[in-house]
Amino acid sequence: MTAVQQGSARLHDDDSLAPVLRAAHQIWIRETSRFLLPIIVREAPFWERWTAVRYLADQFLGQYHRECGLIDELRPFLPADVAERLTRDGERIGRLQCKLDRVGRRRSTAHTVSVVSRELLQLLRSWCADIEEAAGRIRRDLLPEEGNRLVADFELYTSIHA
Q1: How far apart are CA 139 and CA 16, in angstroms?
Q2: CA-CA distance, 60 to 65, in Å (whole number)?
């Protein structure tokens, strides 16, 4: 029996990761959408693409690294196949961000930027939902110290960006 199953009978929403994850993900997706949606249009001007690339490099990556760190901390609580899928999808998001960073800084790349931006945004939405589904019922008091530090970082991110 996993730690999640042991505590699930008496788990209240306030005791779980669900509210923290939902709040942070809503903000992160909203913010990322604000920068990526304008460049999904194939005729997006260079400076819009540049602005989106800068956001991804300067602001997006901080939350992305927190998400990856949290998945690592949650691994003992998750079925192996779920943890692997979350890790694999996270790595794919990282590769897409790097690709946008590379091509988004060059001229005559609007079509490629459009395709990659759409894929990144769709995968980000799906990944966040999958993380919430997999980890949302995990009790916070079961997390190791680093996991609790990351959850506190999620809460800080939410309070700053709300």
Answers
A1: 4
A2: 9
Task: Please write the tens of the pLDDT for every residue from 32-74.
Answer: 999 999 999 888 899 999 999 999 999 999 999 999 999 999 9
pLDDT of residue 11: 43
CA quadruple 58, 61, 65, 66: dihedral, nearest 10: 80
Going from N- to C-terminal start, the domains of the chain cover 12-161
16-19 contact pairs (CB < 8 A, 24+): 16/136, 16/137, 16/138, 16/139, 16/140, 17/135, 17/136, 17/137, 17/138, 17/140, 17/151, 18/132, 18/136, 18/137
Total count of residues recorded for the chain = 162
The list of the chain residues with pLDDT below 70 reads 1-14
